[in-house]
Design brief:
This protein is of the alpha+beta class and 351 residues long. It has eleven helices and 13 strands. Strands 1, 2, 3, 4, 5, 6, 7, 8, 9, 10, 11, 12 and 13 form a 13-stranded mixed β-sheet that branches.
């Protein structure tokens, strides 16, 4: 039995990722995605992966971001402390191991967290894999709202029939408007993608975090070869809607995208989603994960739900307090000096 903590550049991470059962192998647990995320982080924050393998074929992977608390909380008590969060996307522990192996993994993980002075961890768990069963024994779970997943296993006709009638109507409308789609596994039209994506983020008043730089996308062919696709919708001779889809094994994800304001009446985005479902099914994916909203049952969630009215999964997050005394002391210290504390967040300092 072997527990280790790996960096994105470690060959061992790639080997263990490839050894995961297909049902547990999603892009968010790959070393390539970890390397991509590392470039978007504060220099004090590092991507790591707790890993376990045994002689019986058991493999467990747990990618996370190790964050230094002094960059998050302006308080002397935060110096030297750390926390962890999932990478952008889905997280938590994935893989398979017997009861003894899972216990050994969690012992190794607890020791590592103590060594790094990590006092709490937060994970956005995978709704389809259902990896909450692999959470640390001391961890807690919370359902933060629905997570929409299109089931790609039925026939193409069955998938389309599962859409809400309003979506099917929009697809027909887009066809009348002669909206066409094309797909690329490269960055040949990255300039068009960025123009539309940034305009969409500005229109929706998105936070600075979502303004991923051009370099992030330009490294996709190097870091995620065969695991990304850009899909574009064209009206006339102009690209009007686009989406970056990440995919691996059974899972495909609506990652980032947008639509020009003037193209919204054309119903280009519903046609785009329809073509994504066809393409991802052809690639062998069984699920197309659309995600949830910013709040339960908000407009974003209901927009996504129209593509899978029967495909709403619980969206679970996990929180683990490794050191209760430090957790409580930091919260109390922040309250004492008047720093804002979120009452509805596990990581109360991460506003």
């Amino acid at each position: 039995m072997n527990f280790e903590v790996l960096e994105p550049g470690d060959r061992r991470w790639g080997e263990l990722f490839a050894a995961l059962p297909r049902a547990a192998r999603d892009v968010f647990y790959s070393p390539g995605f970890a390397s991509l995320c590392q470039e978007t982080l504060d220099v004090a924050h590092r991507v790591r992966c707790a890993a376990y393998a045994d002689d019986d074929g058991g493999v467990l992977l747990y990618p996370f971001v190790l964050r230094r608390m002094e960059t998050l909380v302006d308080l002397p008590a935060a110096a030297g402390l750390a926390d962890t969060i999932s990478l952008y996307g889905r997280g938590g522990v994935v893989g398979e191991a017997g009861a003894e192996g899972l216990a050994a993994f969690h012992r190794g993980l607890a020791a590592y967290m103590a060594e790094q002075r990590v006092f709490c961890s937060f994970d956005r768990l995978h709704p389809v894999i259902g990896n909450q069963r692999l959470n640390p024994p001391a961890g807690s779970l919370r359902d933060v709202g629905g997570f929409v997943v299109v089931d790609l296993r039925p026939s193409q006709e069955g998938i389309e029939a599962s859409f809400k009638s309003s979506v099917r109507k929009d697809i027909r409308k887009a066809a009348r408007n002669e909206v066409k789609c094309f797909i690329e596994g490269n960055c040949d039209h990255l300039g068009d993608f960025l123009d539309i994506y940034y305009q969409t983020m500005e229109r929706n008043a998105a936070s600075e975090f979502y303004y991923f730089p051009k370099e992030f996308f330009a490294r996709l062919p190097e870091l995620l070869p065969g695991m990304f696709s850009f899909i574009y919708a064209v009206a006339g001779d102009k690209i009007v809607s686009c989406e970056l889809v990440l995919h691996c094994a059974d899972y495909s994800h609506s990652f980032l995208g947008g639509t020009l304001r003037e193209a919204l009446p054309l119903a280009a985005n519903p046609m785009l989603k329809f073509e994504i479902c066809k393409e991802m099914k052809a690639c062998g994916c069984q699920y197309f994960l659309l995600g949830g909203g910013q709040a339960p049952d908000d407009g974003i969630f209901n927009f996504k739900k129209a593509y899978a009215p029967e495909g709403v999964y619980p969206s679970l997050v996990g929180g683990t307090v490794w050191n209760t005394q430090v957790y409580d002391d930091l919260r109390g210290g922040m309250l004492n000096v008047g720093l804002p504390v979120a009452t509805n967040r596990f990581q109360f300092y991460d506003l």
